[in-house]
Design brief:
By secondary structure, this protein is mainly alpha-helical. The chain has one domain. Helix content is 69%, strand content 3%. The protein is built from 19 helices and 3 strands. It has helices spanning 4-7, 28-43, 48-56, 61-91, 98-119, 122-127, 129-143, 169-190, 197-201, 204-217, 221-237, 242-261, 264-271, 285-297, 322-355, 359-384, 401-420, 422-440, 444-458, and strands at 149-152, 155-160, 166-167. A 3-stranded antiparallel sheet has the order 1-2-3. Helix 10 (204-217) runs antiparallel to helix 11 (221-237) and helix 15 (322-355) packs antiparallel against helix 16 (359-384). It is globular and about 75 Å long.
Length: 459
């Protein structure tokens, strides 16, 4: 039993100090105890940080992070498309809500695709790899056919479907490469062939080069950059050695340099990196206006719908540079929120890829996450003036159905993979059992007993 002095929180005069705190005042012992106690207050059991860490470790956390972050990105994107596209639509003689209605239609179709992808068995997703790849190659070839392919902003990479509807096959090439590459690498891993460099590169790299050639034939350098990042991501996940990355990366850098050096407008975009004032010759207009838009928003923005740049100064305000309009209307708080949502989506995708034992899920989840994160960084980096303008949309945020549909299908795949983990399956089964029991009015004890009985049967 503690003495009276200890209960009162004091020590008898001259009494010895015991335990880890023993030692001279201000010595190493006192310092270590202070650090230990401060850490305990910050991260000990019951603290907010501890509860946050425990929440991240739950089996269903990646599923809800993917679902929640992607849904919020879509909703916020719809709001910003409506705000950023009104003046553009009016200048074209169209109704104010023209682009918003088209984007809402694409989101509705994409939601169906995402739900289907989330509910499909993994084996059926894997079975889509070769048909999708062959279909995408056929569409990319059709783009070059006169009368079928359509040029937009100087790039011959669209197919008109009649009226105002058109698709961009290069966007679906990313999804095809993810599924086909994941299936290929998973098969080779099961046969223990990935320890040989030739099986790592062939036929993955030649197929990637074929897709790049078909995409670059239409002039779409931005999509080609994302396909390159996706290809490197698959090689990284497969465990390719660094010397192989150096060799492949050197070849890719050399080809990219040639493609930029011999095309004047690409070289001009490269020279606009970091420019914050408009040159006297009027070059770098889009890059500078994007920086002006972000700067004009300050901390909390001008207000939703109050952007100045979208009134003609900023080209492509609802597509490639929608992040600049977001920064102007919602401020730093709004742009950081968007970045936080993409960071949550990326973390969840990496966790799904890192914790699964299925090689196909690991490669597909890693490839899809690399695709979405690389495209986000390229778009946002261009708006911030840190990267050249590549003409790629912000995933699930910018206007454009061709880019939105394959991306939402990829998010649906991530949801499917997150649900397929054994711990996530058990948690979902227990939750569904509890929900059904509550609907039937069963007592809590009976629900728990039924759940334990089901777990014993599954074991």
């Amino acid at each position: 039993m503690p003495g009276a002095a200890e209960r009162a929180g004091t020590r008898p005069p001259g009494g010895p100090r015991s335990g880890p705190a023993a030692g001279p005042r201000g010595g190493a012992g006192a310092t270590s105890v202070a650090v230990f106690r401060s850490r305990g207050r910050l991260a000990g059991p019951g603290t907010a940080l501890w509860r946050f860490q425990q929440g991240l470790e739950r089996p269903l956390t990646p599923y809800y992070l993917i679902l929640g972050s992607s849904s919020l990105i879509l909703v916020l994107g719809l709001v910003m498309v409506f705000s950023a596209s009104q003046i553009e639509a009016r200048n074209l003689g169209l109704p104010f809500a023209y682009f918003f209605v088209k984007q809402l239609t694409a989101v509705s179709i994409g939601a169906v695709l995402m739900y289907v992808a989330a509910r499909l068995p993994v084996r059926l997703l894997r079975a889509l790899a070769y048909p999708l790849l062959l279909g995408v190659i056929g569409l990319l070839l059709l783009v070059a056919v006169p009368g079928v392919g359509k040029s937009v902003n100087g790039n011959q990479n669209w197919i008109s479907l009649g009226g105002s509807f058109q698709i961009q096959p290069s966007e679906f090439a990313k999804l095809a490469l993810v599924l086909w590459g994941a299936d290929l690498l998973a098969r080779k891993q099961q046969l223990k062939m990935l320890d040989q460099w030739k099986h790592l590169l062939i036929p993955l790299v030649p197929m990637g080069v074929l897709l790049l050639t078909l995409v670059l034939a239409g002039g779409d350098m931005g999509t080609a950059m994302i396909i390159c990042a996706l290809l490197f991501g698959l090689l990284w996940i497969s465990g390719a050695p660094m010397r192989m990355f150096a060799a492949v990366g050197g070849v890719a850098a050399g080809i990219g340099t040639l493609l930029i050096a011999f095309v004047p407008h690409r070289l001009d975009r490269l020279q606009c990196i970091g420019v914050t004032t408009l040159p006297s010759d009027g070059s770098c207009w889009q890059a500078v206006q994007g920086v002006y838009g972000l700067a004009g928003g300050q901390l909390f923005g001008r207000g939703l719908g109050a952007s100045v740049e979208k009134w003609g100064q900023l080209p492509e305000p609802h597509t490639d540079f929608i992040f600049a309009v977001t920064g102007e209307e919602l401020g730093l708080a709004g742009t950081l929120s968007v970045l936080g949502l993409f960071a949550a989506l990326g973390y969840a995708g990496i966790r799904v890829a890192g914790r699964t034992k299925d090689p196909f899920i690991r490669y597909a989840a890693g490839g899809a996450t690399t695709w979405i994160m690389a495209q986000s960084m390229i778009n946002i980096g261009a708006v911030l003036g840190l990267l050249p303008i590549a003409g790629v949309p912000l995933p699930m945020f910018s206007y454009g159905g061709s880019a939105l549909l394959p991306t939402m299908f990829a998010v649906g795949m991530l949801l499917c993979f997150a649900r397929s983990e054994p711990a996530a399956k058990a948690a979902l089964a227990a939750r569904n059992k509890k929900t059904r029991g509550r609907l039937l009015g069963l007592p809590q004890r009976t629900i728990a007993r039924l759940g334990k009985a089901r777990q014993r049967r599954e074991r």
